[in-house]
Design a protein that fits this description.
The structure is a single chain. By secondary structure, the chain is mostly helical. The chain contains nine helices and no strands. The chain is elongated.
């Protein structure tokens, strides 16, 4: 139903998935989202993806990000993630590492997701994230490009998290 070109059929499929869908179907749902070119179809599937909050949803999303089949679509996946109600605080270091790997838009998506993380953060995650960013900055030319500016914003955000952690607000 979700692959149909008929909008009403897609909407019926979305309703069915909201009622009976399982997190194990996430890869297929994401494929359906990618398949559609028509905006109303795409929007309905995007909203469905962003609304998934069942037990195990966060793990299913992380599996999708690790799936080689979707390796070139990570920025699109992160775009959906920052519109979910899920908290990915436990994956801070993963998203920092992903931010330095992706292009400008992917880095922006990761930064937005990271800024929404509520914590608590483990000290190890903060240290790993800091190390990834230091390595990235050390190996990049200082040309002031847009991605570099986003990385600076990410460094500043991590510094704020570390200060909060030092105050005992976010340390687990």
């Amino acid at each position: 139903m979700l692959q149909s070109t008929d909008l009403e059929t897609v909407l019926s499929g979305v309703e069915l998935m909201e009622e009976k869908g399982k997190t194990s179907q996430l890869p297929d749902l994401f494929k359906c989202y990618l398949l559609h070119k028509e905006l109303p179809h795409k929007k309905a599937l995007y909203e469905l993806l962003a609304s998934i909050s069942a037990k195990g949803a966060r793990e299913a999303w992380m599996d999708l990000l690790s799936n080689q089949e979707f390796k070139d679509l990570k920025a699109q996946i992160v775009n959906v993630l920052w519109n979910t109600r899920l908290d990915f605080s436990g994956e801070l270091a993963f998203f920092v590492a992903l931010a330095v790997q992706l292009d400008y838009l992917g880095t922006l998506e990761c930064l937005t997701l990271i800024e929404q993380m509520e914590g608590p953060f483990q000290e190890q995650q903060l240290l790993e994230s800091e190390l990834v960013l230091k390595e990235y900055v050390k190996n990049q030319p200082v040309d002031g490009d847009q991605k570099q500016q986003l990385i600076v914003s990410l460094v500043q955000h991590l510094e704020q998290l570390k200060m909060q952690e030092d105050d005992g607000l976010f340390f687990e």
